[in-house]
Amino acid sequence: MGSTASRYKTFGGGGGGNDSSGPLASGSPNGNLGVLPSRDEDIGEGTAVAPADISQFPYVEFTGRDSVTCPTCQGTGRIPREQENQLVALIPYSDQRLKPRRTKLYVLLSVFSCLLVSGLIVYFLFPRSVDVTNGGIKSALVTFNANTSTVYINITSSLNITNNNFYSVYVMNITSQVQHLKTVIGTARFTNVTHIAPLSQSQIDFTINTEISNGLSYVYYYCTLPTIKVHNIVVLIQSTVTTSYVCHAEQDSIESYEYVDCGSNTTYHHGRFGVAPAGGSGHLV
């Protein structure tokens, strides 16, 4: 096989088709040259070309009026190996892939959606207060022990608990204490009370067993005095409610002064519902 260079001729934009013995011609006026096989030695069908012969030709970039030299490889057709994973394809500025439609609209919608979802989560999950108000005394069951001059009063009181949250609230326990003239006459504690539904109110009734004796024995004579129709005494009821919601516990305290007729059994009005006691003195009704 003869020299590969002898089987090619160069052509130029204005060189007049001069033949050259080398792979490229340098005599063209504008330097825009191409490489074509010689017409008399065209590679016919079935003719094999050795890869070694083709590899002898270096890469040559042909530029004209409407083209520029590649700024990355500077026309050599090669890039440094260390830049192999650092370069990307050369894409025209007018390529529509660089200008996706409604990009700003999609970004604004995404931001608005995130803000809306975040706002709704904060609004519905933000902990709100649990309000505890006094429901008054429902009834008083009075008994006497003449031998010890003791008055026993089972006082049934109530609390109104309002859940202002969008989720259930668990009432863990209720602690209550009754005083008369700064003397504690009865205490009670109730656990595992109830659940309160979202945005609802529940009334919880509970009974405290009180005992008036010892230094307050004069109350026995007052409560059993037949000349008086109504034997009212003033008691102070202090209650503490512990609720649990959103992985934290909260305590609300309330106190109220109430009149109790210690001369006879009295029913003031009925509670709306009752729950069974889970422990402690006294009982829920």
Describe this structure in words.
Mean pLDDT is 77; it is low at 1-36 and 270-285. It is built from three helices and eleven strands; from the N terminus they run E-E-H-H-E-E-E-E-E-H-E-E-E-E. The protein is 12% helix and 39% strand. The termini are far apart. A five-stranded antiparallel beta sheet has the order 10-3-4-7-11. Strands 6-5-8-9 form a four-stranded antiparallel beta sheet, with no helix packed on it. A two-stranded antiparallel ribbon has the order 1-2. With 285 residues, the protein is mainly beta. The radius of gyration is 50 Å and the shape is rod-shaped. Pfam families: TMEM106 (PF07092), TMEM106_N (PF21002). Residues 127-267 form the Transmembrane protein 106 C-terminal domain. This is Transmembrane protein 106B-like.
Report the mean per-residue pLDDT as an integer.
Answer: 77
Radius of gyration: 50 Å
Could you say which overall geometry the principal axes of the C-alpha atoms support?
rod-shaped
Roughly what percent helix?
10-25%
Query: What is the beta-strand fraction?
Result: 35-45%
Q: Give the count of helical stretches.
A: 3
- Strand order in space, largest sheet: 10-3-4-7-11
Helix/strand structural class: mainly beta
Question: How many β-strand runs?
Answer: 11
The profile of the biggest β sheet is:
5 strands, antiparallel
State the order of secondary-structure elements, H for helix, E for strand: EEHHEEEEEHEEEE
Distance between the termini: 114 Å
